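Thread title: Can someone regenerate the structure for this chain?

I was given the following input by a collaborator and told the matching structure tokens would be attached. They weren't. Posting the sequence so someone can regenerate them.
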Amino acid sequence: MNAQSTFGTALVTGASSGIGATYAERLARRGYDLLLVARDAQRLDALAKRLGTEYGVAVEVMPADLTSKADVLKVEKRLREDSNIALLINNAGIAMNGPLAAADLEQAEAMIQLNVVALTRLAAAAAANFSAVGRGGIINLGSVVALAPEMFNAVYSATKAYVLSLTQTLAGELRGSGVQLQAVLPGVTRTEIWERSGTDASALPPSMIMEVGEMVDAALAGFDQGELVTIPSLPDAADWDAFVAARAVLGPNLSHSQAAARYK
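Best answer:
Regenerated them for you:
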């Protein structure tokens, strides 16, 4: 039986493949125990066995479909009650392709449930648990389409804009609590999500597609540096700072008692 990690346990959603599985491997390498959540129990078991053997950490699997409220509540309960959990990787998500007017709205609703509702409930549970003891981290996986919604599907882009906004607001609410927040906004990353969404990533220029290991390593480096928002492919952090500064300039004029003169 493994001794409890001094880092605590990292709960990773969508952990059976792609970004989630890579986060699990990198965190095991750092010495975190793991609680892996995904639908595919067989894949989870194989990953857990490999990481436990390779890194000598304790790895538990929790098969769950986070489009199911009952399963979300099961994971949420564990997040609220387990004092060993010190890090949440809110990674589970799906994408879809095509215009909204022609969309399968059942599929769109399932995506909102996973990308928005489940992520929110788990972030809230982690925030309550971690802030009560003055430590911990919440990493929410978004996408660069939060900043460039015209590039991709309307509903997917909107869910990722929500992830960014939620993370920024929650960081303000938890300021001084000892809990660290991070929104990760990857560009196109080589994972199964594209094939599942019906998007042919091979049609994109290779220069746009980042390997998943490089993306996760960059994201964790950003977390180590204390970044609230990490864009792994952005060469100059000053460009993000300028974006934030430009938004701040709008602040004093976003709410007045009278409409702007151009509307009269």
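The chain has one domain: 9-263.
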